[in-house]
Structures are given as C-alpha cells and as structure tokens.
C-alpha cells in the first residue's frame, strides 16, 4: 500500500508543481479576458474568445518565462548555456511547442471556446460559466499535453526540456 501511494505521489507531485501555477495564471487570464470582452462588446461569444486569448497569455506567458529561466541557468558558467541559439529563446519555444503544440492547437481553436460557450448558454453567470468551461476543456487539453510531454522527454537530447524545476 505504501509503495503504491509513493508511486502515485512520485507521479502526481511533479505534474502539480509544473502545471498548477500555469493553471492559476491561465484562470486569471480567462477571467480578465472574458470580463474585458464582455464589458467592451456586451456579447458572450466575444467574451469567450477574449477569455480563450487571456488563458493563452497567462498560461504560456508563465510557461515561457519558466522555460527561459531554466535554459538561461542550467548549470553552465555563462548565461544561456553553451548553445548560442538559446539567446533568442529558440530552445524554450521548441520545448514548449513539442510539449503543448498539438494539444494547444485543438484546445484554442475548437475545444476551449466551444466548452465555454456551451456552459455559458446554460448559466447566467459570466465568471462561473467561463471557469467551468475552462475546467472541462482542461480535461481534454491535459490528456493531449501529457502525451506531448512524454514525446518531449523522449527527445531530451534535442530539446532542453528538463525535469520539473520549482519556480
């Protein structure tokens, strides 16, 4: 029993450390974008699209900052490691695209706006409907993103995606 519990903890804890702060930033972006879209245009469809953009900005803004920081100080004596291509953030972008690319494409274009719009049509509360739609979309997103993360781990030599580092 203790072995099973430690295996689950060893699996879940790195995921929580990696994704929970990103989700908080994404949720704040969702609420800010949705609120702004609704206040300015008074249309739920626009609010949903603005919430989706806000989610992307919050989530990937923090993800990119973390990846850049990790690549900038990976234990090398000079900033950005030994690869000059990292100066432009190419390695960080490549790592994020490998991990999240396919999941994010489906999520941003179709799943997240659809989930938020469907939930918003069944409730009359903007913030709550956006957050519930976001959570539903996250279930699909993380199923795809975990597969992307595993692919990135297999490509470890070509991509500088490291084990989870605390932020």
Tag the structure with descriptive keywords.
167 residues; 4 helices; mainly alpha
User: What is the succession of H and E elements?
Assistant: HHHH
Topology, number of strands: 0
- End-to-end Cα distance: 31 Å
Rounded mean pLDDT score: 80
| Secondary-structure-derived class | mainly alpha
> Helix count?
4
Question: Number of folding domains?
Answer: 1
Radius of gyration: 18 Å
Uncertain ranges: 76-80, 158-167
Beta-strand percentage range: under 5%
The residue fraction in helices comes out at over 70%
The backbone outline, from C-alpha atoms, is: globular
Give your account of this protein's structure.
The protein has 167 residues and is mainly alpha-helical. The protein has one domain (2-154). The protein is built from 4 helices and no strands. Helix 1 crosses helix 4 and helix 2 runs antiparallel to helix 3. The radius of gyration is 18 Å and the shape is globular. The model is unreliable at 76-80 and 158-167 (pLDDT under 50).
Structure summary:
This protein has 167 residues and is mostly helical. It has helices spanning 2-41, 44-72, 90-122, 126-154. Helix 1 (2-41) crosses helix 2 (44-72), helix 1 (2-41) crosses helix 4 (126-154) and helix 2 (44-72) runs antiparallel to helix 3 (90-122).
List the helices and strands and how they pair.
Layout: H1 2-41, H2 44-72, H3 90-122, H4 126-154
Helix pairs in contact: 1-2, 1-4, 2-3, 3-4
